[in-house]
Design goal:
This protein is an all-alpha fold. It has 19 helices and no strands. It folds into three domains: 196 residues, no CATH class; 200 residues, Glutathione S-transferase Yfyf (Class Pi), Chain A, domain 2 (Up-down Bundle), CATH 1.20.1050; 69 residues. InterPro entries: VPS9, Vps9-like, VPS9_dom_sf.
Length: 483
């Protein structure tokens, strides 16, 4: 179903593309491209103006001297040769994304550009022609039934549609004259990155609104909770090495840098850019800890002290506590909404290696803060002292907490009815899930008390919990469909 490389499928798709173009008034490729590419963020994002999503109180103390550009990883540029009249406009920086936009002006990309415009115009209420392009025929009717903007909209389905559409366009572009000579894995990723950024940027307001429907109450709850925690939580309440403690407590430049990256995180539109900013936050913290260790070593050498225990480079046990503390201090607005937006619309095949490692840490930090109660999930602080500080003036908190419990209960009861179709294979499906459950690695089953867990265990524990939840939800879905 995900493989669109075979000739018959491509020809069929191209036929449907031609049919969808009948509804589009703008037939000139350059005009519709200019409409698509207008007001797009480039990879070098300048964010000097306030965004309406961000309240005036947020970041009002942000250091204006900090460079407001995304710190980008080394980019891979396409090997395609763009004609001179299709080159990047003057004043636009030479980035992989702008190079991709310029390539779409090539006449051979005309049909794909029109198809993208059609998708953006219709999403999420797609017509049967677009659904047919994205999915196999036997899924079409069921998919169409489950589309719509209502309270219980299926986010997984909507992200699945968008991600699959990106893959369809990727395969179509690889067969255009401008790209067909460079059919490498690197080129595929380059196109997918460009398509994802183009489509999600144009649909951003719509997508973020959909995500917000499910997460608004949690956002408000987290905002109040972090504000309360900031009033009494200190670095010594975390498992932070003493070698870092003194410096981190006396300097705020590391928090200013994290603050700046998180400021951009809630404002940029591309899921990839949001991931880059998460990576930047983690690298700021690691870099700062490395500098502290290096300065400590230099001081020891200057004093002719020969030390036996050389501090190890900072690891997960050091990074996660600082991430949690940073989020408490900075308290980014609508944090859960922006994190779930990234989670749903970043292509999972490209969220790998370093990006995945740091993203998992960041997600774990937010999850820890959601569940932190001072008892079962706690800091290095006496539970009684935690209660006294945390539950003072609790009326507003209790009200929001009740709302969140209602939202979480509702979310847990929602079943992804689209992930399973009634058919004769449900026994085989159940057998497959049971086999996965039997072989599931339960690394922490012998830990009897939550206090025995280390901070560094949380990312792995979270991943296991998420995988196990998926399996259980699959079973629930099958059960509901056969009863």
């Amino acid at each position: 179903m995900d493989n669109y490389d075979n000739t018959d499928k491509v020809l069929n798709v191209e036929g449907v593309i031609k049919k969808t173009l009948d509804d589009i008034n703008i037939q000139d490729n350059n005009k519709i491209f200019e409409k698509l590419a207008s007001q797009q963020y480039t990879d070098e994002i300048h964010l000097n103006n306030k965004n309406e999503e961000v309240g005036d109180e947020y970041y009002k103390d942000c250091d204006n001297n900090i460079n407001n550009e995304i710190i980008l990883p080394k980019e891979t540029y396409s090997k395609i040769q763009v004609q001179e009249d299709l080159s990047i406009p003057p004043g636009k920086p030479l980035t992989a994304y702008n190079q991709f936009l310029a390539s779409l002006k090539d006449p051979s990309c005309s049909e794909v550009v029109h198809l993208i415009a059609k998708f953006i115009q219709k999403y999420p209420e797609l017509d049967s022609d677009l659904i047919h392009i994205i999915y196999e025929n036997n899924e079409d009717d069921e998919i169409i039934k489950n589309l719509g903007l209502d309270e219980e909209i299926n986010l997984q389905l909507l992200s699945d549609i968008l991600n699959k559409f990106v893959l369809v366009c990727n395969n179509l572009l690889l067969q255009t004259e401008i790209y067909m000579k460079n059919d490498s894995e690197e080129e595929k990723n380059y196109i997918i990155e460009g398509l994802e950024k183009l489509i999600t940027s144009k649909l951003y307001n719509k997508l973020i609104k959909i995500i917000s429907l499910e997460n608004k109450a949690i956002d408000e709850y987290l905002s109040i909770k972090l504000k309360k925690l900031k009033s009494f939580v200190q670095l010594n309440h975390f498992d932070v090495s003493e070698i870092y403690m003194d410096v981190l407590n006396t300097e705020n430049s590391w928090l200013d840098l994290c603050n700046n990256e998180l400021y951009k995180f809630v404002r940029v539109k591309s899921p990839r850019d949001k991931v880059i900013l998460i990576v930047n936050v983690c690298k700021v913290l690691l870099s700062y800890m490395n500098n502290i260790i290096n300065e400590w070593k230099d001081k020891q050498n200057d004093n002719n002290n020969f030390y036996k225990d050389i501090p190890a480079p900072p690891a997960a046990d050091d990074l996660l506590p600082l991430l949690i503390y940073s989020l408490i201090q900075i308290n980014p607005p609508n944090l859960k909404t922006h994190l779930e937006y990234t989670n749903h619309f970043r292509n999972p095949n490209l969220l790998i290696s370093e990006d995945l490692y740091f993203y998992t840490h960041f997600y774990s930090a937010v999850t820890f803060l959601e569940k932190l109660d001072g008892k079962q999930i706690q800091l290095n602080i006496d539970p009684h002292i935690f209660e006294i500080n945390y539950f003072s003036n609790t009326e507003e908190y209790i009200e929001k907490s009740d709302q969140v419990k209602e939202v979480i209960t509702k979310k847990n009861n929602l079943i992804n009815n689209n992930s399973y179709r009634k058919n004769s294979n449900f026994h085989q499906d159940i057998d497959n899930i049971i086999k996965k459950l039997v072989l599931f690695p339960l690394q922490y089953e012998e830990i009897l008390d939550v206090s025995d867990l280390k901070m560094g265990d949380i990312p792995n524990l979270f991943n296991q919990y998420r995988d196990l939840s998926k399996l259980l939800n699959e079973l629930k879905t099958i059960y509901n469909n056969i009863h």
